[in-house]
Amino acid sequence: MMNPGGIAFDHVTFAYAGAPVLDDVSFDLPEGEFCLLVGPTGAGKSTLLKTVNGLVPHFTGGTMAGRITVAGREVHGSTPADLADLVGYVGQDPLAGFVTDEVERELAYTAEQLGVAPAAMRKRVTEIVDLLGLADVRDRDLAALSSGQRQRVAIGAALVAGPAALILDEPTSALDPTAADEVLSTLHRLVHDLGVTVLLAEHRLERVAQYADSALLLVGGKVTAGSVGQILAASPIAPPVVELGRLAGWPGPPVTIREARRHAAPLREALAGRHPAPPAATFKPARRKSPASESGPPLLDARALTVDYPGGVRAVNGVDLVAARCERIALMGRNGSGKSSLLWALQGTGKRSGGMVAIGGDDPAARKPAERRTLAGLVPAEPADLLYAEKVAAECDGADRDGRVPVGTCAKILEDLVEGIDGGTHPRDLSEGQRLALALAVTLTAAPPLLLLDEPTRGLDYPGKAALASRLGKLAEAGHCVVVSTHDVEFCAEFASRVVILSDGEVVADGPARQIVAASPMFSPQVEKVLPGWLTVAEVAEALGGNGVDGVGTAGNGTGDGAGT
Amino acid sequence: MSGNRAAAVTLRTARRTAHPAAWWGWALLLATAAGRTANPWLLLLIVAVAGLVVTCCRGSEPWSGAYRVFLFIGLSAIAVRMAFYIVFGGSDGPTVLFSLPSATLPAWAAGFRLGGEVTAEGALAAAYDGLRLATLLVCVGAANALASPRRLLRSVPAALYEVSVAVVVALSVAPQLVAGVGRVRRARALRGNTSRSPANLMRTVVSPVLHDALDQSLALAAAMASRGYGRAAGIPAPARRATSACLLIGLMGLCAGAYVLLGAGTPAPIAWAVVACSAAVAAFGIAFASKRVPHTRYRPDRFGARDWAIVASGAAAVAGTVLSGIYEPAALWPATNPLSVPELPMWAAAGILLATAPALLAPSSRGGAP
């Protein structure tokens, strides 16, 4: 029996050419359900979402079979525009989907298209503004909003027509934890207030799982439906709290921190007296006040670094950052706190307005670009910007030429980073993780001692992030100093030995990862919330394995030491 | 909270003052004034007036930087005009600056002269000419900086809605390209690539930028479609066809009118009659089509007294040049042979100065955005 109000898939199969992306998918979401779509990178989550409002196959081509109904209306045969009153769709990047330039106009756009009478339109826009908490910004330009506000505008704009279903594709992937929370709690309230059915895909399950009523797992074109706990327990992709539950054998397993805490007492007892093993513990024995006391000068020495933009915006305000080789630094902070500007200024390609930067004693900004990249390499937020060639092999050759290194250097680095990339593939056809690895390999071809990465985890699932963390860990062991700006607290917990938190262009906290994230509810990972003092599931597993206690003795080897400030 | 709301209300009234069509009208009138003279003082005055008004009145939107871009395009127009003069020659005079080896093409190739003597008089004439072109471009740049193309779209008749959206999307590609070029160039520096060979630039700058722009356009098109743009639901097919036909006839009528008016072969009364008829057809077609279009508008922009004043200040510049054309025509088109310092025509200068009025009438709402 079809549900009258919700979203129903009935034997839906979709293929571009060859292997189907969706293979005989059937599920039934009741009206007012908040459903989470889970799946590895490249499983076809976006494709599934877009079939609901007809963007697939109308915008993409491909062959489709089966029936999709939303609120009892058949989707087949209608264009996305015809379905605008039925399905609201919010894409990954809200800015790319904005048609107008002011908040109110953007909210009204769909209503204008539907021909809603002006008086009714004003009332609806006002309702949406209040519902989404946008009253303070309703007259602003979209360009002047914070990223969380933009995402809420995008959601509001999709809701103005009063759709029965709301589809969201990674709504929090570009947001810092606070803004993500803002957006998700708003969504949660909408489900209650409007009874709209929400289908949402997200990689950062740790943020979303607690809000969802049910989940769909999409692997290899097949969909399994069930409660959030059931699905995540069976999923190859699961947030740390679920992994912890699996490890400890908790029933459910719990998907929220609160549930997990209720089960945590025995595990806490079992862990009492044990300490997390390295590499995360490397800081404890080696806390030095002054970098000068180390064997050599620090690799990176930035003093009173300031970056101004035209229009009197000061993005970075007098930042001091000293770092040694082998350090793994996570740069955290809200959107717009100056993380990217700081990275670009450290690399030397971004302009700095004041202060000094020295990498191994050299100022990168005073060097030519070709020499600069042998001091510091930067992988930008959009790794594809570094890639020009049509084939991976050609890209590697180009990188060898750019860096004037022996032919085959870049290809070998790439092979070490990630195995099995076909040299004939187009870089844009690689998965997010592979593309990032290629950009990283291109950057590493110049062998820079300082490696900077700007938001590398966007679009990566948990295995992808774990692989990235271990690659970067190995690079740090090999003597690089790795600085990563990220919103991703779970990635930070896995990767970082030191955390620097920026706020409004200033450093507000700097120290060993364990101390800093434990002190901040916003930046602490799920495991730390359940088991204070522990950051990752892997640490806990290792400690429970019984061989984690000798960790302190090995701290000095290999993974090196950090400079406290 | 109430303070915020109050601030928002003042911001709204400030923002609503200048209609984008008023800015375009003002800028085009200023451009018309520029087109009616080759006096360098007047042209520089127009550039300065446009610059002043842009500085005082523009917002903080992405396109607000357009004025500077057009200023550079204008400068390059002067440079190109000069280069053409030096290579191909033009008006001549007695003061020879330097000589280039010259070649005269045979008569069947129009007898062009290449190279030869470069005279101060000819160079000055070319410079005046280039400056005039540059001033026109700067006026267009001012309009671009002052009027949001997206707001302009809201003021076109509903029947032209879909066409105008396509135009606006095409327009908005330009700033995206500028931003994209900046990003790609920075990424290029990260790879240590500073080669300036055209092939390399093509591959490492042009191709990624175009690729990005295409991706963005597709994303925007998908977003617009999912939000109901181009919606046909609920309108019967015959009505849709009738609407399109009316629109088409109206537009064709306008084109025919313009053609007849510009073509010299038609006697003036007939030309005007055709123009009047076709304008009527166009007005009817667009009005009829607009009734059928299922879109509505949220808080349409009104063309108020202030907007009329802005247009009037632009018209003052044109009126000034017309008056100068009557009383002091020589000053409008200064002679370059013999060389002399051109005079400043007073009427035209006064009119152009009046065109600075918008700086007082509609000061920037820039302070509102954080």
Automatic annotation (TrEMBL), chain A:
PROSITE patterns per record: ABC_TRANSPORTER_1, ABC_TRANSPORTER_2
This protein's UniProt keywords: ATP-binding, Cell membrane, Membrane, Nucleotide-binding, Translocase, Transport
GO molecular function, one term: ATP hydrolysis activity
Record domain ABC transporter: where: 7-245, 300-529
Protein topology in the membrane: Peripheral membrane protein
SUPFAM superfamilies: P-loop containing nucleoside triphosphate hydrolases
Subcellular location(s) of the protein: Cell membrane
Pfam families: ABC_tran
Region (Disordered): 273-299
Family affiliation: Belongs to the ABC transporter superfamily.
Name of the protein this chain belongs to: ATP-binding cassette domain-containing protein
